[in-house]
Amino acid sequence: MKLAHYDPLPINKHADQLGSTYIPVDSTVYPLALRLYSMGYLDTSFIGMRPWTRRGLLHTLEQATPQIMADGNDEAISILAKLQAYVVQEATETGEGRGRLYGVDSVYARAMGIGGQSLRDGYHLGQTVVNDYGRPYEPGFNSQLGFSTVNEAGPFSLYVRGEYQHSPSAVGYSQALMAQLSAIDLVPYSGYNLNQATIPTGPIASVNTFQLQEATLSVHVLGHEVSGGKSDTWNGPGYGGAMGLSNNAQDIYSFRVNRVEPLHIPFLSAVTGPFRYDFIVGSLKGHTDPNSPWFHSETVSFAPTTNVRIGFARSVIWGGKGHEPITLHTFLRSFFSLSDLQNNYNEKFTALDPGARYSEFNFSWRLPYLRKYVTLYTDSIAHDDVTPPSAPRRAAYRPGVYITQFPKLPKLDFRVEASSTDTSTLRSIGGYFNYYETIQTQGYTNKGYLMGDWIGREAKGGQAWLTYHLSGNEWVQVEYLNKKTPKDFIPGGTTQNQLIVNVVKRFHHDLELNATVQYEGWKAPIYIPGNGLQKDTTATFQVTWFPKLMGGPAGIEGR
Fold first, then answer.
1. Torsion angle, CA of 542/548/552/558, rounded to 10 degrees?
2. pLDDT for 213-252, tens place per residue?
3. In 243-389, which ranges are E strands?
């Protein structure tokens, strides 16, 4: 077994003092990096902990470059060149620091048209558009016009991404359906609960607003980014979803301490390999029962070999108006609480409630003898258990396999993932387990969208992708998606099937076109009575311009 090894990076003494912004998890950087990792490279990366910082990616590429060039793999070399161009202005020269780096990182315009009735209720029936930061969408014409900025100086960094959002008005759910879903969730249907973010009750007004997608001010301290604001999180090795935290919902405002560079612990790392960890605490929005709870999450990942990544995480929703106050005392109680409350159930309804606790486990493995071709992985979450491996029948899972190349077809790759929150234990009946909690009845959501896997509560499904890479950062991809929710949760059950074609094309080095056509067929008798198949088609077209950032090492140009 080959232990993980990290050679000293070829950078000067200023490097560990320099701050760096995060790379958004919806960036095309990650599909490139994940493919390069699964081709047997990027040994210092942690694919189950995203986002990465710009400098973190730079250091990973510096470590991997000699091996990639020595192997002479044309696909890997092409990807390497595109990733290096993305972070080249983070480079430092011998005896000099990076200097200030600032400017507009991207400007984008996205138009999305939806023909037919769509779904926008991941907490119950399903979503037509997933992993999209909880952006509003309805049948008709939807659009976003946005920008992002990168600003780095010494240990400090500031990243801002904002956009104008438009979605049309819609009929929404009837009051009868609203009342029925509220009853399923055990949420009182009266007063301030007449309009819940988790239930799109009609009539739905059109949206025309400016939204900060991300806004993070950070300081770099000994390999950590200590930050406040809104930043992305994706905990898990999967491509189509993450059980713990993903970009399916809007980012929360939070305080964050993220170990962004691998940490070596003397003696211990000789066995476990290097570590990374991440801590987040902030408030959730869109909850009314109780109102305004808070959320904290702790993640740790380690690399016992160059081919294996293992990660653990714990997330807790606690407090809220009308339940218990948000104080340092209640935070510490939820942080250190590991015992099961089954034997003292009434405690949950008092100020002693530690909160809705979720534990996560994930791993990835580049297979022996096939480490350049096949990666196996899984992601899991459990409610009120120390970790999913300790209670496998109560856990939800997203396993997957990724094949990076085929014989005589080096530009073709294939990935498939399954997902299930319909656990085998009887406690999951009725949707009252994963992503749900007796006190925090609006569950694992922010502004109405699930923060974890789009598959939702008590559901099964999966995704498959076949991708042909036109170049290092261009591709044509076909995706199939399926989801089923049982009748014991949603009366009549629900079924979703989607066929998606995505094309990413670059012009020169600074203009990207990203076009998607999606056909969906779904059934939800509780919403549209009868057994007829409902159909909708979604076409999305996005143009992104990547201007050259200012500053950085003299004479070096980005992208």
1. 80
2. 999 999 999 999 999 999 999 999 999 999 999 999 999 9
3. 253-259, 275-283, 294-305, 308-318, 356-366, 374-383
- Provide the token pair at 291: 């109102």
CA atoms of 226 and 246, how far apart (whole Å): 20
Q: Which CATH architecture has domain 15-551?
A: Beta Barrel (2.40)
- Helix, strand, or coil here: 378? strand
DSSP-assigned letter for residue 42: -
Domain ranges of the chain: 15-551
pTM: 0.92
Dihedral over alpha carbons 278, 283, 286, 291 (to 10 degrees): 140
Angle at the Cα of 397 from the Cα atoms of 465 and 315, rounded to 5 degrees: 115
State how far the Cα of 220 lies from the Cα of 256, in Å rounded to an integer: 12
Q: What is the pLDDT of residues 255-293, one digit of tens each?
A: 999 999 999 999 998 899 999 999 999 999 999 888 899
Residue in 272, 257, 262 with CA at minimum distance from that of residue 227: 257
Please give the structure tokens belonging to residue 413.
């790759």
Residue 552 burial (CB count, 10 A) = 22
Cα 10 from Cα 441, distance rounded (Å): 51
How many beta carbons lie within 10 A of that of residue 275, not counting itself? 17
Burial bucket for residue 256 (CB in 10 Å: 0-12, 13-18, 19+):
buried
Inter-axis angle of helices 74-87 and 54-71, to 10 degrees? 150
3-state secondary structure of 179: helix
Instruction: Give the ranges where 474-515 is alpha helix by DSSP (H).
Output: none
- Residue carrying the six token digits 């714990």: 314
Assess contact for 526 and 125: CB atoms under 8 A: yes
